[in-house]
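Hey, weird one. I pasted the Ribosomal RNA large subunit methyltransferase H sequence into the form twice and got a warning about non-standard characters only the second time. First submission, copied straight from the form history:
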Amino acid sequence: MTIKLLTIGKTDNKHLQSLIDDYQQRLGHYIKFEFDVLPDIKKVKHLSESQQKDKEGELILSRIQKSDVMILLDEHGKQMDSISFSNYLQKHMNSGLKSLVFVIGGPYGFSEAVYKRTNGKLGLSKMTFSHQMVRLFFIEQLYRGFTILRNEPYHHR
């Protein structure tokens, strides 16, 4: 199985990017992982929030295959602790799934078309984080999930 993280816009903060790169490298020991960064939408000053979400949604959906299971990282999604998340990952791996795609949307969230296509929503916290920090938090949780599955000491129970 391949796990993909799909995001809009690159990470501007070099310190955050360095940490993301570190966890991405660590994940490579457990699973095939792809980090797909879509370009920011240009000329957003002339677009409404809805129009911007629609354009971002078109970009997101252009990267999703019919067979992909797509999970949105969404503030209204189901929240799990790290052990439950590791079990969630294991369940997907056991299902014979080819590709599990997690998506971080743009600053205004997701378009209706993306919500219609999704297979689920996952919430990281009831708090609001910058989209750039969410990338780091999520990739760290992926890594943590795999160390839990392997019963490695990274996660102290």
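That's the output from the first submission. The warning seems to come from a hidden character in my clipboard, not from the data itself. The beta strands are 2-8, 32-38, 69-79, 99-104, 120-123.
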